[in-house]
Amino acid sequence: MFVLAFAASAGAAQAADPPAAQAVPARPASALQDENLIVPLPAGFKVGFGTRQGQMQITEMVPAGETVQDWSSMVTEQIFYGRRNEDPKTFPTALDAGWRRACPGGSGQELKNVQENGYPVAIWMFLCPLNPATNKPESMWLKVISGADSLYSVQYAYRAAPTREMIPPTMAYLRQVLVCDTRAAPHPCPAGM
After folding, report:
1. CATH at 33
2. Per-residue pLDDT tens digits for 163-178
3. Residue 193 included in any domain
4. Relative to the CA of 183, which of 5, 87, 107, 119 has its CA 20 to 30 Å away?
């Protein structure tokens, strides 16, 4: 399995901001240091886009042969540097308001509010019956992790109405997404990374 690891240490949050739209390469998982977001690259996917602008980093992954403009499914990773120990429901709650404005009949719903690897986690589902921008339905599952250094978000979206068949692999994927810290025993990083 290919894994993308993104460092989000306090030092990274305080570093000078890189120029807008700078490409952000993933670090090899073997180079874990401080607090890290571990995001598996789904089978058959490629990194389609990555950048850091100010205190936010984004990476978008799409199926091979698709683009970030024209996709059937997409995984989006975001790191909000410096947003330490934030309630993980804050981001999806704000996203829900914008989602409903952008999509008539759209909805967001919290599915879980749990602890994983010692961090608070919120998992939400967002549905859009017909996105006016694409004329297609969209379904999205979101996992937000509140770290000691930053706030982390991973979305798995489909340009399709939700089906029962989507849910097990999507939730299995989101279970693999985690934050770990090489400095803190309550947040261990996976062995071999």
Report:
1. 3.40.1000.10
2. 999 999 999 999 999 9
3. no
4. 87
